[in-house]
Design goal:
Radius of gyration: 15 Å
Strand order of the largest sheet: 2-1-5-6-7
Number of strands: 7
Helix content: 40-55%
Largest sheet: 5 strands, parallel
CATH topology: Rossmann fold
CATH superfamily: Flavodoxin domain
Number of helices: 5
CATH architecture: 3-Layer(aba) Sandwich
């Protein structure tokens, strides 16, 4: 089994990356292979064509093909985003819209995978960001595990999320629940 963790932040090494990597470490401890993708290092943009349709684009077009393959290979997908204006980052949604559209237009490769969202905010907006990503999981026919609270933590400066004890406990529990669900679905 394999889990893909995506940090939708444009800040490498920031709070979102810290939490996504922490969850991946928890999954790895449960004998699940992990893969990490940082959108800070793999910029993806959304463009609106003259006809009005939206499509994802990358500085290097082959990047999107490789990213889609990573989604295909994963049994579990963990999406983390900081809160930008009370929602997930534009690059996070550009990626999810692109991957979701391809899944629906092809072989429904997201169906029955496990999906979990993580949000990081300075003060508020995490619930909407989590809901936004969870709606994408649900529309993709994915299965969402729970945790002891919402999968979020508070922090602004790099590393501040580590001071949010309840947030860290919630992410650790999310990783355990995600691993349990992935194993149950594999049986």
């Amino acid at each position: 089994m394999k889990a893909l963790g995506v940090s939708g932040s444009d800040r490498a090494g920031g709070n979102t990356e810290i939490l996504v990597k922490r969850a991946l470490e928890g999954l790895s401890a449960e004998d699940i292979e992990t893969d990490f993708l940082s959108l800070a290092e793999c910029p993806i943009h959304q463009h609106i064509s003259p006809s009005g349709s939206a499509k994802a684009d990358a500085d290097d077009p082959s990047v999107l093909e490789g990213v889609v393959e990573r989604f295909r290979q994963a049994d579990g997908i963990l999406i983390g985003s900081p809160v930008y204006f009370s929602s997930a980052t534009p690059q996070t949604m550009a990626l999810l819209n692109h991957v979701g559209y391809l899944s629906r237009r092809t072989d429904q490769f997201l169906r029955y995978k496990v999906g979990a969202a993580i949000a990081v905010g300075r003060r508020a907006g995490q619930n909407f960001t989590i809901a936004q990503i969870n709606y994408w999981f649900l529309l993709s026919e994915m299965i969402i595990p729970g945790s002891t609270y919402w999968n979020m933590a508070f922090g602004r400066g790099k590393g501040e999320v580590l001071d949010d004890t309840e947030g860290i406990e919630t992410i650790d529990n999310l990783a355990k629940n995600m691993a349990w669900l992935m194993k149950k679905l594999a049986d």
